[in-house]
Amino acid sequence: MDISEYISEKAAVFVQTSLDKSNSEIEQIKYGIQSILTNTFKLIILFITAYFLGIAKHTLIALISFGILRSFASGIHATSSLKCIIANYIIFLGNVYLSIYFTINKLNITVLFLISLVLIALYAPADTAARPLTSKKTRRKLKTLSIVTTISLYILAITLKNNTYVNIVTFSACIEAILITPLAYKIFNLPYRNYKKYEIITSTSNQSM
Fold first, then answer.
1. Sign of the torsion formed by the C-alpha atoms of 63, 168, 117 and 194
2. C or N terminus of the chain, fewer CB within 10 Å?
3. Helix (H, G, I), strand (E, B) or coil at 155
């Protein structure tokens, strides 16, 4: 048992003894606490590395740009903490170094955002097996928010004066757009459009009634 699991287990026991909660609610609380602790640990590792590399501010901009769009569009998730840490290094530190050493002009920025917008319009939101988006209303809302966020990031990118920051915002949108495509799911051998499984189950249940 790792430290995050230990703390979340103790917190769940405390909640269970203090409040009148069902077992399913306790499990949700435990999972939420563990997720927060695990993600915090990963971010600490990322920013300690970025600090010693002298790119902490750039990494923060990459994280915010990517995270805002990802919160609506979702996308693939690593299947282990180690893989997630490695993915964070590639996505954020890779983005920063690419942005520092390669300058893209406004035409290329527009082209990259157009490609990202098309991918977002086609595939967002891309759910996961752990978090299937079974509600059509929720999926429509998240798609709209994803499109609006992509357009907002484009406006931000073309108004920023610092070329490195422009590149970071642009590459962040591109990376997230790629991570929601069926090809990305196929490459990482992850199930795609997980909500359809629940639609099949619901349809089968209705037919048997």
1. negative
2. C
3. helix
**What type of residue sits at position 189?**
N
User: Do 96 and 59 meet the contact criterion of CB atoms below 8 Å apart?
Assistant: yes
The tokens describing 43, both together, are: 């971010």
For the stretch 58-113, pLDDT in tens is 999 999 999 999 999 999 988 887 888 999 999 999 999 999 999 899 999 999 99
Q: In the chain, which ranges are continuous DSSP H helix?
A: 3-18, 23-53, 56-73, 81-88, 94-101, 106-123, 136-159, 163-178, 182-187, 195-208
Which residue is it, tokens 């693939």?
Answer: 76
Q: Around 180, how many Cα atoms within 13 Å sit in the side-chain half-sphere?
A: 29
Per DSSP, what are the bridge partners of residue 126? 74
Q: Residue 112 has what pLDDT?
A: 97
All residues at 6 or more sequence positions from 156 whose CB lies less than 8 Å from its CB, including other chains: 169
Are 172 and 95 a contacting pair, CB within 8 Å?
A: yes
And the tokens for 90?
């590639």
pTM of the model: 0.81
Compute how many other C-beta atoms are within 10 angstroms of the C-beta atom of residue 157.
24
Strand partners for 74: 126
